[in-house]
Write a sequence for this structure.
């Protein structure tokens, strides 16, 4: 009898153990035995806007639960080179295997630190430009610096960057915004953006934008210095600079906000009483086209104030660099691997919305902090594993590039 009881107890214990294993929420426990744990550092200007929230949510609440990875975070204001370098030092000191930064800031000095420490580095929202063997600065940021620093472009530890507005730097995106503005029937249009040295794509976006406006006979409100669009705003003075710009054009009826349109440009317009609404339709009231999204986008889109909005696919950007970095830290560097087809820049999708159906799809299949459902996110763990060599994946750059460049419609189809 005792033997029978003991046998039953042993069976119960085994079954309980199996059930506990099946019920584990952290999929990282099912990783191949030779996959090592990785620590990745992230540098952004904050983690409180939609960009920061999305990146942190996808990293901490999804990737870290699906893979043996942890994330460390540092902040550095855009344009503050010294703060960026301090952030790099801090992340290296914590034992990070790789660092992804939101900026193409002081890459030469950053890569000196990373190459020396054996830490992989990539740019989340900026193009990796080949400035090797060239002295001095290629723009006023001084991204690569000296010839010696610029040659680190070829370092095994520099994993490149991302075209966040397309390989054409946003020209076609600008045309999309221009057509939405033309279709709305506005007559006199302005545009404002961050400094050109920090957001050079804004100039190209506005070229596409003004081409469509010109073809439709829509008048523009040029910047006094350049004679074209966009007007330029400082990083910390966007609100005041927006007010000063629109004050020069009392009959402007639409503005293209490229300097965080929803978070910075719209509030400034509202503060001076010129934001268009169903109850404020007089001369000089302004409708908005926005690079940017926040939780008030739906309201302003529904009432007609917001003509078109959009935002980066942050999940695609993070998934791209994460895949490169995780595999590199586990011994497979796609950059140097023969036959991987590595290229220095991937292209992520920049979705726009001009109606509620488009906005709803974007929120459902792209913004994890809105839908709170990772089964519908833009790049799934299983899709990443299909590429990762550490999980028996293809290790092919073209396959990874395809995953992170899908439109919202393509992601929606893949999730259904």
């Amino acid at each position: 009898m005792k033997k029978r009881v003991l046998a039953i107890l042993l069976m119960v214990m085994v079954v309980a153990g199996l059930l506990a294993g099946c019920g584990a929420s952290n999929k990282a426990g099912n990783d191949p035995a030779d996959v090592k744990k990785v620590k990745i550092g992230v540098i952004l200007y904050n983690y409180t806007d939609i960009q920061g929230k999305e990146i942190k949510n996808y990293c901490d609440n999804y990737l870290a639960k699906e893979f043996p990875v942890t994330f460390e975070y540092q902040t550095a204001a855009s344009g503050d080179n010294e703060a960026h370098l301090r952030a790099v030092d801090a992340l290296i000191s914590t034992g990070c295997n790789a660092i992804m930064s939101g900026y193409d800031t002081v890459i030469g000095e950053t890569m000196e630190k990373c190459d020396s420490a054996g830490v992989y580095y990539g740019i989340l929202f900026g193009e990796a430009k080949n400035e090797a063997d060239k002295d001095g600065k290629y723009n006023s940021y001084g991204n690569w610096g000296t010839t010696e620093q610029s040659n680190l472009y070829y370092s095994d530890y520099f994993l490149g960057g991302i075209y966040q507005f397309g390989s054409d730097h946003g020209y076609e995106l600008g045309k999309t915004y221009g057509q939405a503005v033309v279709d709305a029937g506005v007559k006199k249009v302005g545009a404002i953006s961050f400094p050109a040295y920090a957001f050079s794509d804004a100039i190209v976006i506005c070229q596409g934008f003004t081409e469509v406006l010109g073809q439709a006979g829509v008048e523009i409100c040029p910047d006094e210095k350049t004679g074209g669009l966009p007007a330029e705003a400082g990083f910390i003075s966007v609100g005041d600079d927006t007010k000063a710009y629109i004050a020069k054009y009392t009959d402007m009826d639409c503005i293209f906000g490229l300097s965080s349109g929803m978070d910075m440009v719209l509030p400034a317009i509202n503060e001076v009483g010129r934001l268009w609404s169903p109850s404020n339709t007089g001369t000089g009231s302004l409708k908005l086209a926005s690079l940017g999204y926040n939780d008030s986008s739906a309201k302003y889109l529904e009432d007609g104030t917001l003509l078109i909005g959009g935002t980066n696919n942050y999940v695609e950007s993070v998934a791209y660099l994460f895949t490169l970095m995780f595999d590199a830290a586990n011994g497979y560097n796609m950059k140097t691997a023969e036959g991987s087809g590595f290229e220095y820049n991937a292209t992520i999708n920049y979705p726009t919305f001009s109606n509620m159906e488009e906005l709803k799809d974007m929120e459902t299949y792209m913004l994890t902090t809105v839908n709170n459902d990772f089964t519908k996110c833009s790049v799934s763990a299983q899709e990443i594993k299909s590429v990762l060599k550490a999980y028996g994946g293809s290790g092919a750059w073209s396959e990874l590039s395809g995953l992170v460049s899908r439109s919202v419609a393509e992601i929606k189809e893949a999730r259904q």
Notes: The longest strand covers residues 38-44. Confidence is low (pLDDT under 50) at residues 1-26, 137-141.
